[in-house]
Amino acid sequence: MGKVHQVDYDGKEKKTTELSLVQVKGTWKSKLGKKINKAAVDCVSAAKIYESITEQGTSWTVVSPITFTYKVIETRGLLDPSNDTLLLGHITDLQQLEDIKKSNKPIRRFVVVDQEVYQIYGPKLTEYLEANNVVYKILALPTTEENKSMETALKILDQVNDFALDRRTEPIIAIGGGVCLDIVGLAASLYRRRTPYIRVPTTLLSHIDASVGAKTGVNFANCKNKLGAYIPPAAALLDLSFIQTVPRRHISNGLAEMLKMALMKHRGLFELLEEHGPMLLDTKFQADNTVYGHSSLKAASQATRIAITTMLEELAPNLWEDDLNRLVDFGHLISPALEMKVLPSLLHGEAVNIDMSYMVYVSQESGLLTEEEKKRIISCMVGLELPIWHEEFTMELIQKSLQDRLKHSGGLVRMPLPVGLGEAEIFNNTSYEILHRAYMKWCEELSVSSDSTCDA
């Protein structure tokens, strides 16, 4: 690029120079122009500095690309002492991996685990760490939506600080549901400004949702995930065998997020859930020796793989949400306010499904879905044992949530709506009349009894 003359906003000429950054003997230096003798330098950075000079002075614009590499790994027997995925699965550098395996230096790990998960898997986790000669600290905490707070994150950080982690080579391990993964992720992002962490989801919801993205966070000011950061884990380690100890309601809870991806992106996944959803609930995504046979594990593997793939397709190119038009926000426009309002009576996926149920009516009322498609979707939700209506989901809550949405989404509602089975688009101009007509019809057809919240 070299030197470029531009006219500033005040009409005065300015001179802008592009500077490349090269490293020579451990020192970074700026170099003019694009042609650099790479043989004469140790490293050329992808970052650039643009220096602009005007009569008022000099300004520097820094463009510094940030690249995150993280792995999502399906495995079986994660806590089998012979399986080293939990300790080494996150490492991408083969030489580093080889050096660690040859080293006599013990591996050190700080593990945060949901206390209910610890009651089930604590002995197995301890046995695993000791069998692999790991120097470890296990912190078991109650990680529920009610204590998803900065206080809990700071409690973790106190213990991490006492353990004296190496912030580059000793990742914090989080084992639990989505709340646990979110809190630990935020704590790790704060400690020494970014300490690597590993996610091990133990619920279906976190298996297909919280584990594969970059979001971390805690609740604040009575708002869901008001504080947080976009810091992906070094790795998400997925073992479906954890799901076998999850209560049936929590399996259904996870199926809501899976259904979200089906409605937005994948008709085949929707039809799989429509046909096999009850079986997946009965078998808890495990191989089954009864009437279902091996078809249960095949359906479980196929459903989770499609859900994760479609989720990654949406998240990977937009990890920091630079683009606010996000299909993965389907079911998340009204549900955060509903979830916090009735806490703890609704699980996250249940609140999301109630939101999705209403939005399906909005789609049908807007002419985007046929009556038959609407009925199939609602029937599928019922088959997955998900709630499809709630008395606290009022027009007042809808209006307030959409107004808040405008504030935080660049002045646009950015409402994802299905336009068929497995297809969706983003809409900004859905009228109040349509929202109200859809709401009235939704209440009339799905409420368990007539209720004052359904009055015009």
Amino- and carboxy-terminal Cα gap: 63 Å
* Low-pLDDT segments: 449-456
| Count of helical regions | 14
Which range does the strand content fall in? 15-25%
Helicity level, as a percent range? 40-55%
Q: What's the average pLDDT? A: 92
Q: What order do the strands of the largest sheet run in, or round the barrel if closed?
A: 6-13-10-9-7-8
Coarse structural class: alpha/beta
Rg over CA atoms: 25 Å
Order of helices and strands: EEEEEEHHEHEHEHEHEEEHHHHHHHEEH
Strand element count: 15
**How is the biggest beta sheet arranged?**
6 strands, parallel
**What is the molecular shape?**
globular
Present the secondary structure layout.
Layout: E1 3-7, E2 13-24, E3 27-32, E4 43-54, E5 57-63, E6 71-74, H1 85-88, H2 94-102, E7 108-114, H3 115-131, E8 135-141, H4 150-163, E9 172-176, H5 178-190, E10 197-201, H6 204-210, E11 215-220, E12 223-230, E13 235-238, H7 248-265, H8 267-283, H9 295-315, H10 335-341, H11 348-365, H12 371-383, H13 395-408, E14 415-420, E15 423-427, H14 432-446
Parallel strand pairs: 6-13, 7-8, 7-9, 9-10, 10-13
Antiparallel strand pairs: 1-2, 2-3, 2-4, 4-5, 11-12, 14-15
Helix pairs in contact: 4-5, 6-7, 7-8, 7-9, 7-11, 8-9, 8-12, 10-11, 11-12, 11-14
